[in-house]
Amino acid sequence: MNSRERVLSALDLKVPDRVPFVELTIDKYFTEQYLGINRGSIPESKYNFLDGPILSVTTVGNSKKEASILYDKLKLDAIGISFWIKHLGIIENKGGQGLITGGKLKSAEDIKTIQLPDPDDEQIYEPVKNFIKDYREMEKALYCVINLGSDPVILGMGFENFAMSIYTERDLVIELMELYANWYAKVLHARKC
Question: From CA 144, how far away is CA 98, in angstroms rounded?
């Protein structure tokens, strides 16, 4: 079985030749060290829209060759792309890692600052379509990770504020969860990829 067959067999509730090995994210620093690449030399993914409303990131830079080497060395059976709503979390560099240390969503008034893209806009799906086209020949299973409704709420509010708001401002948390979950439901129904 190749990797794609292995994953599809498991998803179809059949017994593959071995348990599929899938990792949703691989740290950029680990990738560079493991592949012996100088830190900072892996360019940002060509699928990455850091300044747009969607954050879309492959698990390793934009080189299919580097991805192939990494995934073969780790014996991974799938390679994926993230299709994330850009959250309103406050990111700080802590020990070389970007960590969410708080959030910009504090009140119902802040909901007005959230501008989600039109889920019927074909352009927002282009990175995923290009990823599929570029990586299909690797014989790996391909996947797309979404951050559903809870991630942008928790990250956008900051974990501490989110936890407190469940008790003190439950309606705010519910409204935010529904906003993001409804948007992703429209994306999944659109099936543009």
Answer: 22
Q: How far apart, in whole angstroms, are the C-alpha atoms of residue 56 and residue 69?
A: 22
> What residues does 102 pair with on adjacent strands?
90
Give Dmax (Cα) for the chain: 54
Instruction: Count the residues in the chain.
Output: 193
CA atoms of 125 and 143, how far apart (whole Å): 14
Quote the strand ranges of the chain, DSSP E: 54-55, 78-85, 89-94, 97-103, 141-146
CATH 3.20.20.210 fits domain 3-190? yes
**Model pLDDT for residues 1-36, shown as the tens digit of each residue:** 999 999 999 999 999 999 999 988 777 777 777 888
The H-or-E segment that residue 5 falls in is helix 3-11
Which residues, 6+ apart, have CB-to-CB distance to 20 below 8 Å? 3, 6, 7, 10, 77, 78, 141
What SS3 state is found at 107?
Answer: coil
pTM for the whole structure: 0.76
Place of tokens 């680990």: 30
